[in-house]
Amino acid sequence: MATSLNIPIDRSSPVPLYHQVVQGIEAMIRTGALEPGSKLENEIELAAQLNLSRPTMRKAMDELVRAGLLVRKRGVGTQVVASQVRRHLELSSLYDDLSQSGQEPTTRVLAFRHGPAEEEVATTLQLPPGVGVYHFTRLRSVGDKPLALMENWVRDDVAELTEEGLRAHGMYQILREAGVNFRLANQRIGATVADDYQADLLQTAPGAALVTMERTAVDDTGRNVETGRHVYRADSYSFEMTLVQR
């Protein structure tokens, strides 16, 4: 049965009408009023419910589809996909963000190695002679849904890492408990499409959109402690940021 919308529309607000609809549906998804799999009425009926024009309603629905919150299925209609993990741009980990939002992340360690660093990694981490790295790849999930495929390199003179520890705890949590005080990070966010390997692990289709993140974190002594390359399902993950006029 299709779900009706009960979204207040303020026609005196400077916020565009279509964006008020976007914000209202996002809030309903976030609070659970619209659960994953919920089917929505068609755009003509939704526009009539909210006393809006059909182009306004279509623009709102198009934006929600692009954001990965809704999906249009032939013969079925428009359905809710899921609420995204929205991650603020700050020096935290995915494990921290999921835990703080009340979710229970799980981790599969797909590969783990301890030894000398490759030249590119040694240069990135500015490793002194004799210092090696822990190199590992993890799959982070919530429930049965995988969210991220994460590859990291951590210098081995700051903490002792184990596969067991990485399965049970977030990497940043382990490093902080070992005495690492993170100060800043250089981070780059981008996009790509899933190859066969990524699609299989992330339970999505080859060619599906993925969010990418590359990061190198620095501690309060100026050491480059870790560097990593992560990919996230774009239908379940987004970054949020605040922009300041300079």
Automatic annotation (TrEMBL):
Domain HTH gntR-type: 15-83
CDD domains (UniProt xref): WHTH_GntR
Pfam families: GntR, UTRA
Keyword Secreted carried by entry: no
Database matches in SMART domains: HTH_GNTR, UTRA
InterPro entries: Bact_HTH_transcr_reg, Chorismate_lyase_/UTRA_dom_sf, Tscrpt_reg_HTH_GntR, UTRA, WH-like_DNA-bd_sf, WH_DNA-bd_sf
Keyword Flavoprotein: no
Gene3D superfamilies: Chorismate lyase-like (3.40.1410.10), Winged helix-like DNA-binding domain superfamily/Winged helix DNA-binding domain (1.10.10.10)
PROSITE patterns for the chain: HTH_GNTR
UniProt keyword annotations, A-Z: DNA-binding, Transcription, Transcription regulation
Protein name: GntR family transcriptional regulator
Organism: Sinomonas terricola
